[in-house]
Specification:
Elements (H helix, E strand, L loop, with lengths): L3 H9 L5 E6 L1 E14 L6 E14 H10 L3 E9 L2 H13 L6 E4 L5 E8 L7 E8 L7 H14 L5 E6 L7 H14 L2 E6 L11 E2 L3 H8 L6 H15 L3 E5 L5 E5 L4 E4 L13 H14 L4 H15 L10 H8 L5
Parallel strand pairs: 1-4, 1-8, 2-6, 4-5, 8-9, 9-10, 10-11
Antiparallel strand pairs: 2-3, 6-7, 11-12, 12-13
Helix pairs in contact: 1-9, 1-10, 2-8, 4-5, 6-7, 8-9, 9-10
Length: about 325
């Protein structure tokens, strides 16, 4: 496994990097309630409302993770002219993240994921149900033009571009072609995390599917390392990508290099996972930043594995700070 000194050196290089995160910006809303009684109207639990929390979700969470890791981040995406969009902008401003890459579209709602959380003050609060409010239909051509222009203007100084696609249509084929053109001109790393349409994003540096997505994309079972390797190689060829980082939950990660080996990395820390919400955003952020900072693919995957192991121990949509990563690398394991 890669030495701790190399990982710490890569981490030290994060601060000087600029990353564009383009994709679907989502408002993550958490509504907390304390169980009260069973309803007389239907056999359902009544929760007494206690608090509401709003967090950066989707591509906004990926951007937040890049920022927390110490790099300069520029989110590029679309919000509606609505309360959820205003809340997301306010969260970006509060975090100190620039919003000049964000386009507002009238009549298109901001994507919102509302999680209803139940539990007492001392007990672990569990997600009971999730309600998604999703934008439908394609972007207006004027919105696509605006994204195109922002990518062109902001991409000139980017060391890396993360495409964070949650299926809401922000990264159109024309917008993605602009991402590739910008990267060709600047030599920027391009990495992709796509929930539903990964094969559309070809010719990139890296992609970060999870095991279930790998199985679905290749039509094969990926229940052991040999199967992951075989399916991963198929997907690498199909994507014309240089690297594939497959997240495997409690079994860690698999790094496949187009011109090299396959490396299986055991999970960092414990497999007593608290919450996987947004963990993929943390992984792609750390992996991409490490590559941009000059780390080898093995070092970048090792850093991403540590970051992923830290973030799943936190509840809700969360980030990992550079200081936490530094502390973890300085521990006994390094």
């Amino acid at each position: 496994m890669t030495g701790g000194a190399g990982l710490r050196q890569a981490l030290a290089g994060f601060a000087g990097k600029t990353v564009i995160v383009i994709g679907d910006l989502i408002t993550d809303e958490y509504l907390f309630g304390k169980p009260s009684r069973i309803s007389r109207e239907a056999p359902v639990l009544i929760l007494r409302f206690t608090e509401r929390e709003v967090l950066l979700g989707g591509a906004a969470n990926a951007a937040h993770n890049v920022h927390a890791l110490g790099a300069r981040v520029v989110p590029v995406g679309v919000l509606g002219r609505d309360a959820a969009g205003d809340e997301l902008l306010a969260l970006f401003h509060a975090a100190g993240i620039a919003t000049d890459g964000i386009v507002a579209e009238s009549g298109r709602p901001t994507a919102v994921k509302t999680r209803i959380m139940a539990g007492g003050y001392q007990a672990t609060r569990q997600q009971v149900v999730r309600l998604d409010r999703e934008p439908a239909g394609e972007l207006l051509s004027i919105t696509e033009d605006a994204l195109f222009a922002r990518l062109s203007a902001l991409g000139a100084r980017a060391d890396a571009v993360i495409v964070s696609d949650y299926g809401y249509g922000t990264v159109t084929p024309r917008v993605f072609e602009r991402v590739r053109a910008v990267a060709r001109r600047t030599g920027a790393i391009v990495s992709v995390d796509s929930r539903y349409q990964l094969p559309r994003f070809t010719g990139v540096t890296a992609a970060t599917p999870n095991e279930a997505e790998l199985a679905q994309l290749t039509g094969t079972e990926v229940d052991d390392e040999r199967a992951v390797d075989k399916a991963g190689r198929q997907l690498l060829e199909r994507l014309d990508a240089r690297l594939l980082l497959v997240t495997r939950g409690s079994r860690g990660m698999a790094l496949l290099e187009r011109d090299g080996a396959t490396t299986f990395i055991p999970i960092h820390g414990t497999d007593e996972i608290a919450d996987v919400t947004g963990a993929g955003d943390t992984v792609i952020s750390a992996f991409t930043l490490a590559l941009a900072a000059g780390a080898t693919p093995g070092e970048a995957a090792a850093l991403a594995n540590v970051a992923g192991g830290l973030v799943v121990m936190k509840r809700g949509t969360a980030t990992v700070a550079a200081s936490e990563l530094r502390q973890a690398l300085a521990g006994p394991a390094s």
